[in-house]
Amino acid sequence: TEHVQACKVVEKLCKTIPELEKEISRLKRNSIVSDPGNPARNAPIIDENQQPVTQDEYDAVVQRSRALQKKNESLIAKLTGGSTDRNENIIIKQLNEELIQARDETDKAQRWRKDCMDLCAISTARLEELAGFL
């Protein structure tokens, strides 16, 4: 369930990040992006809908996009990391081998028990014959 939830989050991030990247590229195309030292920093930026967007809003979108990209990368790394999966697979393989060995030992013990029961039955019959003879 944890992996399923992580997959859903990754899918959502994969959809959100391109949208944010498109928004950033639109803002870049339709505006003059100023550097922090430029006095035009707070000049309004016009997006594709002809709505004013401030540099601060643009920067916030860029920061959000970067944060989502980092989160996406960490979730992908967590899902594809595989080191825990490999460890779990090794443990499962070892447990399966132990299970096979335990089953073999159980089969041997069952055969030994049956042989002992047969010997006891034969011995009992012989003892009864001997007791009848005496």
What is the structure about, briefly put?
The protein is about 80% helix and about 5% strand. It contains 3 helices and 2 strands, in the order H-E-E-H-H.
List the helices and strands and how they pair.
Elements: H1 2-29, E1 45-46, E2 52-53, H2 55-80, H3 83-133
Overall domain count: 2
Main sheet properties: 2 strands, antiparallel
Main structural class = mainly alpha
Q: Can you give the mean pLDDT?
A: 78
* Unreliable runs: none
Distance between the termini: 75 Å
Helix/strand order: HEEHH
Sequence of strands across the biggest β-sheet: 1-2
Strand content: under 5%
What overall form do the CA principal axes indicate?
A: rod-shaped
From the alpha-carbon coordinates, what is the Rg to the nearest angstrom? 37 Å
The count of strands amounts to 2
Protein name: Centrosomin
Organism: Culex pipiens (House mosquito)
Q: What brief labels describe this structure?
A:
134 residues; mainly alpha; two-stranded antiparallel ribbon; 2 strands; 3% strand
Explained architecture:
The protein folds into two domains: 1-81; 86-134. It is 78% helix and 3% strand. The protein has helices spanning 2-29, 55-80, 83-133, and strands at residues 45-46, 52-53. Strands 1-2 form a two-stranded antiparallel ribbon. β1 and β2 form a beta hairpin. α1 (2-29) packs antiparallel against α2. The N and C termini lie far apart (75 Å). The mean pLDDT is 78. This is Centrosomin. It comes from Culex pipiens.
